[in-house]
Amino acid sequence: MTAQPFLFITGMHRSGTSLTANLLCQSGLALGDDLLEATPDNPDGHFEHRPFVDFHDAVLGARNANWYEPPSPEVCRWTTSEDETARVLLADLVGRGGRGAKDPRATLFLHDWARICPAAHFLLVWRPASEVCDSLRRRGDPTLHRWVPFRRQMRALGIDRFNARLAAASWADYNARLAAFAGLMPERCLVLGVRSLTARFEELAVALGKRGFELNAAHAEAIVRPDRLQSTPRRGCVRANRAARNGEIEDQLAELERATWERAVP
Fold this sequence. Notes:
The chain has helices at residues 17-26, 50-62, 73-76, 80-95, 110-116, 129-139, 151-156, 164-184, 197-210, 220-223, 235-243, 246-264, and strands at 6-10, 100-102, 120-126, 189-193.
């Protein structure tokens, strides 16, 4: 397996991982040559290497699961065959010059990636729960929208088809895994709140430089558009996340982020 440092960029969907990957890619981090196409909800691109995404989806599919309702961490652990496939995918990407990979689904497989790639580092991106929930609502993903009768009438009455409880539970699952992993392997992880991305990007480039990644942060201001991260979540999203007690995980991530930058930039 590669002895070169390799960076996994991950976090819950709609947490700013694409924006973070965009900045790093423009700063010189090679993320693969078979990236997913841009979409209306990510007009600048996803920066996800297609074979990695397909692999993660296949692992979830083999367990009759999906990205928004993943199985437990124990069930997510790879089989021998999946382990071999992952090693081949990683070796192929590195052999073609790749130095990193971004996919929110990698959150579900952090321990296996860390095991098969001892030179891997992990950039764990998080965003407040209600903002993620609202971003998922605005994206209109059918997997998170319930079927309701008399749709127009329900909308007129302010009844939203968006399943805020499921989105809040998914946020909790992903971010609890991030926090647990960062707590176990602090020396291999950088925890970054996307709200701090612009202010900390030069520090991030320095921290990654110390880990063997040669980056030029000069493009950061040209790429970041603050309006991309602005959000005023609907009350349903706020209530669902409050009910799920996601604020406790947010506090834990904020503390891990503080500790990250105390270590990275003394």
